[in-house]
Amino acid sequence: FLWEWLKGRGLKNLPTMHVVGIGWFTESMKEGRPVAVETRHLIQVRYSLSTICLSSLLQDALEVLVEYHELTEIEGPRVAYSRAASVLKSLPWTIESMGGTEALPCVGEKTRTLIQEILQYGRSFEVEKILADERYQTLKLFTSVFGVGPKTADKWYRRGLRSFSQILADPDVQLNRMQQNGFLHYTDLSRGLSAAEARAVEAVVGETVRTVAPNARVVLTGGFRRGKEFGHDVDFIVTTAEPGRENSLLPLIMGRLEEQGLLLFQAHHPSTLALKKIPCRRFEAMDYYSKCFLILKLEGSRVQGGGQAVPAGRGWRAVRVDLVAPPIERFAFTQLGWTGSKQFERDLRRFARVERNMLLDNHALFDKNQFLAAVTEKDIFAHLGLEYMEPWQRNA
Ligand code: DCT
Ligand code: MG
């Protein structure tokens, strides 16, 4: 009952620990096992529920605000709300009143108003207004297609388009190859990937790289390196010790994937790396390494517990995979950058700039007119005077 009640409220950010507790409680009741319920337990259950709901409501509300500003490309509030969400997520205590919130770093006036509203009414009127907004709903729907960014989504919205069928039926809309494939594989790609599927992709990519370039090194990066259970794609770094050879790796890998009938789509961006361009002050700027954005065919038989992972009867599903191929001496910077999370990268660069007067990006770390060398991520943390953080600690 409690679980259904929580789900019924549409809460997404429920801490597992509490849910396990509730599971045990209701299971015991259902099975007729005696559960000694004392008043203090009931008080505890009520207390946990109200704090779970508050922090969950707050996280959900902040997620909507971040997404809304991302979709409408309003950078300032997007960054401010993301920072506030990270800080509130990492608090060792739960917010139960406004007291003490003024002292929290990165929690500004607007977030404090949001907290106040949620504490007082259990909901945010601003967030409810956004959720009901037609433009927000349409931009969210359109940008869920691979290859469609906020600009294209807004252009279609302003043309009066509101649904996929309207886009596909409009003779004036020219879809590029990426968007055509985004629509073609929409159902599979919008499902995201589990960690088991990511491991299967890792095995396929690993075998492919070993076949075409036995001396190359391939490592998992992105959200799955941070230990995430779900992700929208699987990211890899491939490199080789032979100077200049990294640029030929991706075409070789894509060729082999094609031969195996596993390549459904590829967009390859050759390297534009030139020393004068690094390091880059703008976070949004893509790095200059050779990279490719792929859609691969993942066979269900390759996934542990495969049956439920792919659509029944088809035997495979489409998955998004990104590969980046930096020169070996840039490997550590690429790994630190591509491991994410995006918010962590943003904050780390800001720390380097503001606290250390250094410049950090996916290519290099720059200090007083010189580039600092790094073989591993640990070297970069050490240059920044920071304790090493494991990938799972970078989920902010
Ligand atoms: N990244 C970067 N420069 C950018 C964009 C992203 O260096 N302009 C980094 C940050 C995270 C990493 O690349 C992988 O990006 P995503 O795959 O988008 O994120 P993720 O953390 O892997 O999460 P998911 O794939 O589940 O959305
Ligand atoms: Mg990823």
UniProtKB/TrEMBL annotation:
It catalyses: DNA(n) + a 2'-deoxyribonucleoside 5'-triphosphate = DNA(n+1) + diphosphate. GO terms for cellular component: nucleus. Its EC number is 2.7.7.7. It is found in: Nucleus. Its cofactor is Mg(2+). GO terms for molecular function: DNA binding; DNA nucleotidylexotransferase activity; DNA-directed DNA polymerase activity; metal ion binding. Transmembrane segments: none annotated. Keywords: Magnesium, Metal-binding, Nucleotidyltransferase, Nucleus, Transferase. Its main location: nucleus. GO terms for biological process: double-strand break repair via nonhomologous end joining. It comes from the Eukaryota. Mg(2+) binds at D233, D235, D322. Gap-filling polymerase involved in repair of DNA double-strand breaks by non-homologous end joining (NHEJ). Belongs to the DNA polymerase type-X family. This is DNA-directed DNA/RNA polymerase mu. It comes from Neogobius melanostomus. The chain holds residues 74 to 469 of 469 of the full protein.
